[in-house]
Amino acid sequence: MRRNGAAAIAFNLVFSLFMLGPIIVVIGVAFTPEGFLEFPPSGISLRWFRAILDNPEFITAAWISLKLGVAAASVATVLAVPAALAIGRGRFAGRDALQALFLSPLMVPTVVLGIAFLRFLSLLGLNGTFTGLMLCHAIIITPFILRLVLASVAGLDRSVEMAAISLGARPLTVFRRVTLPAILPGVIGGWMLAFITSFDELTVTVFIVNPSTTTLPVRLFSHITQTTDPLVASVSAVAILFTVVLMVLVDRLYGLDRLLIGEGKR
Amino acid sequence: MAFLELHSLTKRFGAITAVEDLTFSVERGSFVSLLGPSGCGKTTTLQMVAGFETPTDGRIVLDGRDLSGVPARERGLGIVFQTYALFAHMTVAENVAFGLEMRKVAKAERTRRIADALDLVHLSHLEDRYPRSMSGGQRQRVALARALVIEPQLLLLDEPLSNLDAKLREEMQLELRRIQREAGVTTLMVTHDQSEALAMSDSIVVMDRGRLRQDATPFDVYEMPQSSFVSRFLGKSNNLAARLGESGPDGAALHCGNVVLHGPKADLPPGPVEIALRPERIALTGPDGGKLRGTVAERVFMGNQWLLRVETEIGDMLVMRYNTGRREADIGETVGLDWNPADIRILPAETNPA
Ligand SMILES: Nc1ncnc2c1ncn2[C@@H]1O[C@H](COP(=O)(O)OP(=O)(O)O)[C@@H](O)[C@H]1O
Ligand SMILES: [Mg+2]
């Protein structure tokens, strides 16, 4: 297959364009001076970015989504790390069942989950509350963290922990000083993936929000069902910028490829 | 009473018996090797001493104290794992510091002891490096320093040299022994490498399928094997089935097929036995000399010595000759084999061949 050089390059180009296309279109539309969705834009204008400031409900929604993502990802991480350690290394009855349980939110259709959560939250009296929303998101995103942390745990050398114990470390110290640092890439990677998943979750969320807890995706969704002005594009562009900054920051701090390739050891 | 004593130690994993009725002891300050083929239960034994496995039966006594019920964390042992098990996110100095921090050793003393430990393993210049940027031999030294800095009562080594290449392994044999002597620490090492065990130990415990086969000094294990297994596991040996006749005052008659050989006096009753003769104890003579005649079938030059396979009427015999710079018998040549009858070892016939 030596002849396919040109074809392969062409394919990669087309594929990259396909992947980047929506982002390019959204950013392009966001800069339009016109009052409708237009691509390519007929000029460059910050009109629709200024419009965000006139629609504070978007800023409120973004703020809710941010808090929701951080809280849900953190709660899910606290759940998933001990679960991954137990599943990844334990030899106990019900290990497979436990793993299936934690991964099940991936298997159940999100619409079904949404209806189930709606019913469940009313039973608990948490309907429409931030706490209720956060718990539901935590459940949905736990599988993502679990899988990344499980991969790190698989690469863990048990004798490293034994070494720490033989040197006199108590179980909590072993976890804090030895185990956690060794699986940290998986934990951080999982947290990020979970945060992003929560940040743009729509299907389940529409079932369980109320006006005071409307998230950014839900706000955008309800906006485009009413009008089709480029405001949605400028809000999206800001969200994309936020994601890019986050990625660059993590890359600087930690090395993005190490996270995403999921290398367990340094 | 010895410093470390294992009494009838047994470990079963379900239907598998990994260690069975193992009894031996280690004197204070000595270096003892647990030697045996892979899967014979060496690591399991070490893990029981370390406190990571609970014996199914038997007792471990360290310095007069029964260790059952003492958790691994409180045993105060230094352990070097086969994979070294270094803390990858810590520098060399931080790795070594870990055990001292757990013991709440004051900062000043900690710094001094880390420096001493790194000095002992000749790594002082690398204290700020991370393990990932070090060679296998250097990591091994870090692991040793980390284990020794806590001044353990006992040092446990699990196949410490098996991840090193051959040349480094030989160097580290001597180095490990030097470090052990300087630290004066009682050491129990696990290895499947007989030459390593012979070179390094004060005493060797040979294991096979979970059981103890012999416990003696390296010289005695090699010279006076008490079983066919031990004679074949340590070094090379010519082992032949024979029938032991009555022992007379000047030794025993050994019937190998149609040939009668003479051996030393045996403590065994007449009947089937196995005889063992080391290749380096056999001399080559002219075709009409010696005790046995044969034809050279194979010849391997190993630099300092020759290894020959000689076909005889009682079976193939390996012969080891030092290379003295002279020509050695060629393939196809008929030779005579000679030895001192006292070099023959008479062993019980193996009832359950491996
Ligand atoms: N945790 C375990 N569960 C079941 N079997 C084990 C376990 N650990 C060791 N074994 C078995 O016990 C035997 C001895 O193992 P080991 O002590 O590791 O041998 P060695 O270190 O001499 O190679 C082997 O047959 C091994 O499969
Ligand atoms: Mg082993």
Describe this structure in words.
Chain A is mostly helical. Chain A has a domain of 172 residues: MetI-like fold, CATH 1.10.3720. Helix content of chain A is 77%, strand content 0%. In chain A, helix 3 packs antiparallel against helix 4, helix 3 packs parallel to helix 6 and helix 3 crosses helix 10. With 354 residues, chain B is an alpha+beta fold. In chain B, strand 12 and strand 13 form a beta hairpin. Chain B has two domains: 225 residues, 3-Layer(aba) Sandwich (Rossmann fold); 119 residues, OB fold (Dihydrolipoamide Acetyltransferase, E2P), CATH 2.40.50. Chain B contains eight helices and 20 strands. The longest helix of chain B is centred in the middle third of the chain and has 18 residues. The chains are: A mainly alpha (266), B alpha+beta (354). At the A-B interface, helix 7 and helix 8 of A face helix 2 and helix 4 of B. The structure holds adenosine-5'-diphosphate and magnesium ion (MG).
Short description:
The complex is a heterodimer of chains A (266) and B (354). Chain A has 266 residues and is mainly α.
Overall number of strands of chain A = 0
Name the chain pair with the biggest interface and residue counts per chain. Answer: A-B, 19 and 29 residues
Give, in order, the helices and strands of chain A: HHHHHHHHHHHH
The name CATH uses for the topology of the largest domain in chain B is Rossmann fold
Mean pLDDT of chain A: 87
Main β sheet profile of chain B = 6 strands, mixed
Based on CA inertia axes, which overall geometry of chain A fits? Answer: globular
